[in-house]
Amino acid sequence: MVNGDGTEIRVGIGARLKEERERLGYSQPAFAALGGASKGSQLAWEKGSAMPNAEFLHIAASVGVDVLYVVTGRRNMSSLAAEEEAVIAGYRMLDARGRTGVLALISGMQPPVATPGRTGMVFHGQVGEVKNIEGDYQQNEPVTINVGGKKKRTK
């Protein structure tokens, strides 16, 4: 529900403008100065007692403010960083093989999934022949480990 005088709308816009300013790391005076406004104007906007004009919002958008979010409360899902735009533009210029390679590269960069269980090894069988090892080690063939064999006697 909105008041007849638009107070609720102004307060919401002010709160979101402050949120965007803080997200981008600007102080109130520095942010206001971007568009030639005063710190007092910035304070009034953030309190909801006044609203920034379209010219200020246009300038704010050029430094990364999501103006759609400030005005409506909905994030602009299509806004991308310059690096992201470059990646997408490059991806679109690739042929099918190149796109497949990029997708494989990206999927290979995912952090490894931690495997639950032991981190040590458990040996089954006689000491001299290991047939099964449990843990983070994979061996497909039996391994023989000689431990403490007979010493050669010297005369």
Explain how this protein is built.
The structure is a single chain. It contains seven helices and four strands, in the order H-H-H-H-H-H-H-E-E-E-E. The model has no long low-confidence stretch (mean pLDDT 81). The chain has a domain at 7-72: lambda repressor-like DNA-binding domains (434 Repressor (Amino-terminal Domain)), CATH 1.10.260.40. The strands form two sheets. It has a two-stranded antiparallel sheet. Strands 2-4 form a two-stranded antiparallel sheet. Helices cover 47% and strands 6% of the residues. It is mainly α and 155 residues long.
Any key phrases for this structure?
155 residues, mainly alpha, 434 Repressor (Amino-terminal Domain), two-stranded antiparallel sheet
Helix count, DSSP H or I runs of 4 or more residues: 7
Tell me the major beta sheet: 2 strands, antiparallel
Q: How big a fraction of the residues is strand?
A: 5-15%
Question: How confident is the prediction overall: mean pLDDT?
Answer: 81
| CATH architecture descriptor text of the domain at 7-72 | Orthogonal Bundle
Taking Cα atoms only, what radius of gyration do you get, to the nearest Å? 32 Å
- H/E element sequence: HHHHHHHEEEE
The name of the CATH topology of the domain at 7-72 is 434 Repressor (Amino-terminal Domain)
